[in-house]
TrEMBL record:
InterPro entries: IS402-like_dom (IPR025161), Transposase_6_like (IPR052909). This is Transposase. Residues 108-128 are annotated as: Disordered. It comes from the Bacteria. Residues 119-128 have a biased composition (Low complexity). Pfam families: DUF4096 (PF13340). Residues 1-79 form the Insertion element IS402-like domain.
Amino acid sequence: MSDELWERIEPLLPRRERRFRYPGRKPLPDRQVLCGILYVLHTDIQWEYLPKELGFGSGMTCWRRLRDWNEAGVWQRLHEVLLAGLNAERQLDWSRCVVDSPHVRALKGGASRARRRATGAGPAPNTT
C-alpha cells in the first residue's frame, strides 16, 4: 500500500486506547492489519489460512479488526473519501455510472399498488 493511500485511510480508523494496568500485548499496527485484510479479500483465501510469514498477523486478528472497523463505519467513510478525491481530480467517468435500484426511491404509490396486486388486498375487481 502506498504512503499516499495510507495517509488518506489512517485518519478514518478509530483509535484504541491501551489499558494502563495490564495493557496486554501491543496490537499490530493498523497498516499491517489492513494489508492482511486486503490480501485475504483479494486472494479469496480463508482467514485461517493467512500466512503469518507475510507479517500481517493472524487471520483472526485481521478478521476482528475488519469487524470492528465495519461496526465503526470506516468502510463507508473510506468509500466516500476516495470517491470525493477521484472526483476532485476528475478521474471518474460519470457516463459509466449505474444507479442500483435499492438506492432509488420508488414512485409514490407504486409500491403500495404492487403490494395490493400481490396480496389481493384493495378493491375487488369490477366483474360487470
